[in-house]
Amino acid sequence: xxxxxxxDLNTYLTVTLYSSSPFFSxxxxxxxxxxxxxxxxxxxxxxxxxxxxxANFEWENVSKDVLEKLNKANGVGRVDVQKPEAxxxxxxxxx
Length: 95
What we know:
There is one protein chain. 18% of the residues lie in helices and 33% in strands. By secondary structure, the chain is of the alpha+beta class. It has a four-stranded antiparallel β-sheet with strand order 2-3-1-4. β2 and β3 (46-55) form a beta hairpin. The chain is globular and about 50 Å long.
């Protein structure tokens, strides 16, 4: 199932978990490290990569704290802030 993401309202973070992470079996529990974080879901079939959101109106004030707490959480390998990018169509000369 595709995730329904709204970049107008939220900033999205992907969190890569180690298989030994205590959050691996229940990744939604990772949202407890900061009150502004909400668990959105898994990235495709990648059980180790999870998507979390923070409301845009909060992000500017809490971004450093959120990123610090997620990066320090037990079993977190990587945290990335997702940026929406417009897809461009290829011209027929590029195919």
